[in-house]
Design a protein that fits this description.
Layout: H1 14-24, H2 39-107, H3 110-140, H4 144-154, H5 160-172, H6 181-199, H7 203-231, H8 235-256, H9 265-282, H10 284-306, H11 319-329, H12 348-368, H13 374-404, H14 417-443, H15 448-489, H16 509-528, H17 532-553, H18 560-578, H19 583-596, H20 606-610, H21 620-627, H22 638-642
C-alpha cells in the first residue's frame, strides 16, 4: 500500500491503519487465508512502508516551510501597506494642519509672534520639500497612484508649481534619443497626455507648461544651432533650413492642437512659434532677395561663360549704340551687322533654372512671410524674376538678335532671328505659367495684383515691340533675298525669247529658285511661331511676296510666248502661295494670274477679259499698265482697244 497524504486525513486510527497494511500484505493476515502466515515477509513490508512514510514526511515538511515563508512575506507586505497608508494619512493630516497654521500665521503680528511664525514657515517648507521628494520618487518608479495622492496634497501649497516643474523635467529625461527632435516631441506629448489626466487635477495646465518648456528650451536650441551655423556662410542652406524648421515646427504645433491646452491653444502655440523664429523671420525677405539675386546672376554668368561670350553693354548712349538703334528701326545700312554664328543666346536650361530658383523663393515666401507682408514680398521676388529672366536674358538676346539681322540687300543672309522668336515664345509660356501657378495665389486678393499684372503687361509689350521689329526686318531680308534671286536669275530674254518656236512652256529658273526659297521660309515661320502669330506673319510675308512679284513682272516686255511663260511663272507662284494657307495671299496671286492673261489675250478680247470677275474691280490704270508690257502694244494699237 503506497504511502500518501490522503491516508492520514481525519479521522485517523493508527491500529486500523496497521491492520489494513498487514491484511493487504501477502502472508501477513492474522486470521489465515489462502497463504500461510509469513512474519518475515510482513516485517520486510513494514520496513519498506516506514521508509515511504519518512519520505512523505520530508515532502510535507518542505511544503509547510514554503507555505510558512510565503505567509511571512505576505504578512510583511500587508504590514508595509498598512504602514504606508497610515503614513500617507499622516502626511495628509500634517499637511492639512500645517497649511491651516501657515494661513493663520499670515495674520499674526510679526513683532509678537516672530518665533512662532518662523517655526511654522520652517515646518511648512520642510513638509513641502518632503512632498516634492516623495512625488519625484513615485514618478521615477512609475507609481501613478502615489503621484496622484501627493499632487493632490501639494495642490494647496506654494510648491505645487515646483512639483509640476519637476514632473515636466523628469518627463523629458531620456525622451530625445532619436535624431528627430520633432518626432520625439510628438511621441513624448502623446505619452504624457495620457498620464497627466490621472495625476493632476488640471491636466491642460500641465500639458501647456510641458509644451512651453519644450518649445522654449529644446526646440529653440535646436533651431538656433541649425540656423546660426549657416546664417553668415551659406544663404542657400540657411533658407532651406529655415523653411524646413519652420514647416516642421508648425506641423508639430498642428498635431499638438489635439490635446487639451486651455481655451485658446491656437494663439498659445502661435506665440511659442513666434518666439522661436521672430528674429529670423524679420530679416527673411532681405536674405531671400539677396540670395535670389546672387543665384540668378551666377546662373546667367555661367551660361555666358560656357558660350565664351562677353555680354555687350546695352543702352550706353554711345555713337555705336545710336547707330545700332537707328539700324534696328530702319533699313539704312549703317555698317555691318553682328555675326552671332547662329547663336540665339537663349537657353531653356537657364530659364528652367531661373524659374526653379524663383519657385523655391515663392514657396518660402508663402510659408515664412507674415500674411500682411506676403503680397509685397511676393511682388519683390517677381521683380527679380523680371530683372534676370526678362531683362538680363530674354531682352538681351532680342537686342543681340536684332543686331545680327543683316540688311535687306545682304547676299545669302542667315536669318537666325526666327530661332530667337521660337525660343522666346517657349520661354514666354513658361514665364506665364509660373506667374499663374505660383505668384497669383499669393497676391490674388491684394492690391498688389493690379501692380503685378501691369508690370507683366509692360514687360511683355516691350519685348513684343522688339520681336515685331525683328520679324519685320527679317521679312525685309527675305524679300531682299528673293529680289536678289530674281535680279541674278531672271533674264530679259525669258519673256521675249529670240526664237519663239523653240521655247519649252514651263516656269523659269528664277521662278523655281524663288519658290523653293519661299517654301523654306514659310516652313521656318510655322516652326518659329504659334497660334494667330503664324497667320499674321505669313499674311505679311505673302503680301510682300506678291508685291515683289507684281513689281518684278512690270520690269519686262512680253512677247506672245513670253507672256505664256509669265503666266506659267505666276501659276507656280500661286501654287507656292497655297502653302501660306492664307486666303488673302492666294486671292492676290489669283488676281495677278488674271492680270498676266492680259499679256497674251487677243486685242479684240481685251475689254471682255478686263470685265471678268477677277479684274472688273481693279483700277483701270493698273490694267493699262499691264497691257503696256506687251511687245505688240504700239504696233497693234492696243491702247485703242483698251480704251
Amino acid at each position: 500500500m503506497a504511502a500518501t497524504a490522503q491516508l492520514f486525513e481525519e479521522p485517523f486510527d493508527a491500529d486500523e491503519y496497521i491492520e489494513r497494511l498487514a491484511w493487504r500484505t501477502p502472508g501477513g493476515g492474522s486470521k489465515g487465508g489462502a497463504e500461510a502466515f509469513d512474519p518475515k515477509r510482513l516485517l520486510e513490508e513494514f520496513k519498506n512502508h516506514i521508509e515511504e512514510l519518512k519520505q512523505l514526511d520530508e515532502r510535507i515538511q518542505r511544503r509547510v516551510e514554503k507555505l510558512e515563508q510565503q505567509c511571512n512575506r505576505e504578512a510583511k507586505e500587508f504590514a508595509r501597506k498598512v504602514q504606508d497608508l497610515q503614513r500617507s494619512n499622516q502626511i495628509k493630516e500634517a499637511a492639512d494642519i500645517i497649511q491651516k497654521l501657515h494661513l493663520i500665521a499670515q495674520e499674526l503680528p510679526f513683532d509678537r509672534f516672530s518665533d512662532v511664525k518662523a517655526k511654522i514657515a520652517s515646518k511648512y517648507h520642510d513638509l513641502e520639500r518632503q512632498l516634492i521628494q516623495e512625488f519625484t520618487a513615485a514618478q521615477r518608479r512609475g507609481d501613478i497612484k502615489r503621484m496622484q495622492e501627493v499632487a493632490a496634497v501639494l495642490l494647496h501649497f506654494k510648491g505645487y508649481a515646483h512639483c509640476v516643474d519637476v514632473y515636466i523635467k523628469q518627463c523629458q529625461e531620456g525622451a530625445y534619443g532619436r535624431s528627430d527632435v520633432f518626432e520625439d516631441t510628438a511621441l513624448l506629448c502623446q505619452r504624457v497626455n495620457k498620464q497627466v489626466g490621472e495625476v493632476f487635477c488640471s491636466p491642460e495646465t500641465v500639458m501647456a507648461k510641458l509644451i512651453q518648456s519644450i518649445f522654449e528650451n529644446k526646440l529653440q536650441s535646436h533651431v538656433k544651432d541649425k540656423l546660426e551655423e549657416t546664417r553668415r556662410s551659406d544663404s542657400e542652406q540657411y533658407l532651406k533650413n529655415l523653411f524646413d524648421l519652420y514647416t516642421r515646427t508648425t506641423t508639430l504645433a498642428t498635431k499638438l492642437t489635439e490635446f487639451n491646452l486651455g481655451s485658446d491653444k491656437h494663439t498659445f502655440l502661435s506665440k511659442l512659434i513666434k518666439n522661436i523664429f521672430s528674429s529670423y523671420l524679420e530679416s527673411y525677405i532681405d536674405v531671400e532677395r539677396e540670395h535670389l539675386r546672387a543665384r540668378s546672376a551666377m546662373i546667367l554668368q555661367r551660361y555666358y561663360d560656357s558660350k565664351n561670350h562677353q555680354k555687350r553693354p546695352l543702352g550706353t548712349g554711345s555713337i555705336q549704340e545710336l547707330k545700332e538703334r537707328i539700324r534696328q528701326r530702319t533699313n539704312l545700312p549703317l555698317g555691318p551687322s553682328i555675326d552671332t554664328h547662329g547663336e540665339t543666346f537663349l537657353s531653356q536650361e537657364v530659364v528652367v533654372n531661373l524659374l526653379q530658383e524663383t519657385r523655391h523663393a515663392f514657396e518660402r515666401c508663402h510659408r515664412l512671410s507674415d500674411p500682411s507682408d506676403l503680397p509685397k514680398n511676393a511682388f519683390s521676388i517677381f521683380l527679380l524674376l523680371v530683372e534676370h529672366l526678362c531683362v538680363d536674358h530674354i531682352d538681351y538676346a532680342l537686342e543681340i538678335g536684332l543686331s545680327a539681322i543683316p540688311s535687306p540687300d545682304a547676299k545669302n543672309a542667315n536669318l537666325y532671328f526666327l530661332d530667337v522668336v521660337q525660343q522666346a515664345n517657349t520661354i514666354f509660356h513658361l514665364f506665364d505659367k509660373q506667374f499663374n501657378d505660383h505668384l497669383m495665389p499669393l497676391i490674388s486678393s491684394s492690391p498688389k495684383l493690379t501692380e503685378c499684372l501691369h508690370k507683366k503687361k509692360e514687360v511683355i509689350e516691350q519685348m513684343e515691340v522688339k520681336l515685331d521689329t525683328g520679324i519685320d526686318r527679317t521679312l525685309n531680308c527675305m524679300i531682299g533675298q528673293m529680289k536678289h534671286i530674281l535680279s541674278t536669275e531672271q533674264k530679259k530674254t525669258d519673256f521675249k525669247p529670240e526664237d519663239e518656236n523653240n521655247v519649252m512652256i514651263q516656269y523659269t529658273n528664277a521662278c523655281s529658285k524663288v519658290c523653293a526659297y519661299v517654301s523654306k521660309q514659310v516652313e521656318r515661320v510655322r516652326k518659329s511661331m504659334d497660334g494667330k502669330n503664324v497667320d499674321t506673319v505669313l499674311t505679311e510675308l505673302g503680301v510682300r511676296f506678291h508685291r515683289l512679284i507684281h513689281e518684278h513682272l512690270q520690269q519686262f516686255s512680253y512677247s506672245s510666248m513670253g507672256g505664256m511663260l509669265a503666266i506659267c511663272d505666276v501659276a507656280e507662284y500661286r501654287r507656292c502661295a497655297k502653302d501660306f494657307r492664307v486666303p488673302l495671299v492666294l486671292q492676290l496671286f489669283d488676281t495677278l494670274h488674271a492680270l498676266c492673261n492680259l499679256l497674251v489675250v487677243a486685242p479684240d478680247n481685251l475689254k471682255q477679259v478686263c470685265s471678268g470677275e477677277q479684274l472688273t474691280n481693279l483700277d483701270r490704270n493698273l490694267l493699262h499698265a499691264f497691257v503696256q508690257l506687251r511687245a505688240d502694244y504700239r504696233s497693234s494699237r492696243l491702247g485703242r482697244h483698251f480704251s
